[in-house]
Amino acid sequence: MFRTVSITSFIVVFICIIIHWIIFRPKANELFGADRRLRILDPLRFLVFLLTLLFIPQKLTLIGVLRKLVYLLALLCFVVLFITGFFSRLVLGQTISGYWLMLHATFALVFAICVAILAVMWAYNCRLNKKYWPWLQKILQQDMTDSAIPRKHELAQKLSFWLIVLLALPLILSIILSMFTFFGTHWQELLADIHRYIAVVFALAVVVHTYLMVIIQAKR
Amino acid sequence: MIAFLALLLITPSLSAAAEPAGTLLGDESDGSRAQPNHLIELFPEDIDPTSFEFVKGDKIKPDIDESSKVLLPFSTKWTCGECHSYNIINKGWHFNAADPNVLPGRLGQPWIYFEARTATQIPLSHRRWPGTFRPEQVGLTNYEFVKIFGRHTPGGGAGEHDAEDTAQKMRQYISGKLEANCLACHNADPGQDQGGTYGYSMQVARGNFRWAAAASSGFASVTGSAEDMLDTYDPFDPFEVQSAKERQKSPPAVTYHKAAFDNENRVLFNIVREIPAKRCYYCHSNLYLSDDGQNLSDDEKTEKWATDEDVHLKAGLTCVDCHRNGLDHNIIRGYAEENMVSQNPLVTTSTCEGCHLSEGENRPQAGRLGAPVPKHPGIPPIHFEKLTCTACHSGPWPGKKAQLTKTSRAHRLGTPNVNKSDEVLPHIIAPVFAKQHGTIVGYRGRALILANGKIAPHKLLWPAFWAELVDKQVRPVALDVVRQTVGEVFANLELPQSGDWPNLSKENITSALVSLAKAIEGKAAYIAGGNLYSLDDKGEPQKQQGHPAAQPYLWPIAHDVRPAAQSLGVRRCEDCHATDSPFFFGTVTVDSPVVSDRISAKKMVEFEDLSPLYTWLFAFSFVFRPWLKVVAIGSCVILAGILLLYALKALASVAKVLAGED
Q1: What class does CATH assign to A2-32+45-219?
Q2: Which of A150, A173, B6, B649 has the highest CB neighbour number within 10 Å of its CB?
Q3: Do B377 and A112 touch (CB under 8 A)?
Q4: Using a CB-CB distance cutoff of 8 angstroms, which residues of chain A are in contact with residue B381?
Q5: Does A194 touch chain B (CB under 8 A)?
Q6: A159 within 8 A of A172, measured Cβ to Cβ
Q7: Which ipTM did the prediction report?
Q8: CB B387 within 8 A of CB B456
């Protein structure tokens, strides 16, 4: 059941991302300039562009550098957690155990810290201002002249951020609470199921958020 | 009065007529839970003077003239068989070990033949459990096997097999067959004597198989020994019996206690369906030679008052509440995969899970017999995939080192003149936490093993025996050959009073192997302490470590079950997940007569099929688990704070808008 649900969810989301990319992808001319040579190398150029996103720009302040470092660390932890968490379950069809479990638990600790720090650092910038709700302002007959126009996909990116923060809470709690002697077998199984299913939604939210970050950066 | 007597006379025939064809009176219950009265006549096994076949003898009268007719012991086959289908009962689990058609199921306790003089300790079983040897492989005939081990069987099995050659047939004619002794389990009379000086075990050892059940009954005395009789002795001929006595020989003879018989020569048996645990204990007692941290002296720790019983017995259950059977005596062993090999309909509901956890298909199952439904708070469900229930709940609380253990069957407990030393052979070590070998569910040329893969507590035996190598196959050498060769070489070897191993040096082994090699066709070898010793082409001793044939034999244990409050993990995860926990890192001594082998030891983790490094790292990670909890909860607090803060801000914005302020 879990295997079917999660594999289907991942496939659906990845197909949606591919379709979205095909429709909304930044034009190569906008990204790399219209006067570039050897256009056959555009995919390579795009990979280099993706790589540069991992770099820390010199213009960043100390806080900015810290924010980026924490984000990159969180991303690394997410990749490890994704592989260790889903490989056993989805590929091998077994409960996570052995070295996978040890890696998972180790990186989960770092990831939990990173998510908490990122939540603090990003929350202010991810506020959902009234500019994201023009339809609501119209209903309320409010003046919209001073509302800045948000960038494309910005709302989706911010919503995915809040979804990540919201899901991180039960994701962490479901596994931490099971380590205490509060819950019996039935609840242990329920908590494990909660952890698994939330992990799927959480992973999808992170994938979508990262994709939107990339596409926004590319458009910028 | 006459009518009443007439009714009494015809009642049995009426009852018998009411049964289906082939079904005897006692084969099928009418549903009454009341205890049936067993005031019955006794019948012996006799010999038909014309056909010379064994037949049902005349009703036993304790005061017959023994000069004209031998007073014979009663036969359970003919006495109990009057009302119960003996030939169905004696196919049950307790009696069918020697039947090659019976699937052996999960590995069980073997019979252990040991002899300090020849440094031998070898697991034997008629059941084809990998790691055990069939008695005939070490040259034991059925008669010899029963004479050694029949003391702790309820009869039947190998004891009822027809002898194969003429010499054995003559001995079997004298000793009789060891019939299934119904009384061994079902007689609740306190006089039932299985292990007394003149009881069942002693009669079996004397070769008095025909007399053993009567001797155990409590109302008959048996003297003499069939073993001492000449091959030509006829136990059914009163003249022969008298002649033997005159030759100062003591032929086997029975004397009944006349007070036990009523005026119609019937005897009242206290036969019960609900077999008392103490009957089972005769063959199924365990003695763990550790003081369980109670600071008991060596003498005290073996005492009953110093040890606890299985929690189920203390809760008021008896063994047969779980280990059930019907007429076929196909008793439930109680392991999870038994339904693959047993036809007993209650086999799936009589396991640990059956009473404590099973939800049942049509009705609630858990809680049967008052079984508490366990909550297992804080235990991740993966434990139930990796461990048997017994891993945490059964056997003694594990110590740093697995202890020597005694069992009734291996150490002859409950019989006369038992060596009570802790070190007496055979050396069984427990509890050893190991991955189960699985359950043998069939044969296709070789045993089909359904691997269970769960870790369970086991008893362990390091085999030590003399063998010959033929085509790289290790075959044990017949015990009498070993006695004649190795026994001669070791004749002057000092044997400890404690019954422990002699101290063998490599020189001892070399000279024994040289002697043995002369008596066998293959290459002589000695298995001990997990190693195979043999001589190279130059006659020098060589040791092959970890030889497959030298691996220890392990069998799972289930009892005594400890209460939930004393199960592993009840205090904290570190009961098992610690770098020095007995569960993973407890020591299992390598037991061997060879002195140089005794320094080696193994860790439990080696038997659990786990990586020692991983297990150690995983256990070590539990040091940081409290940190993980604190940091993760701290992160959750921050995340919740952020969510709450911005949710309140959002609410404030909504309130502001709704108030018309924005």
Answers
A1: mainly alpha
A2: A173
A3: no
A4: 95, 185, 188-189, 192
A5: no
A6: no
A7: 0.89
A8: yes
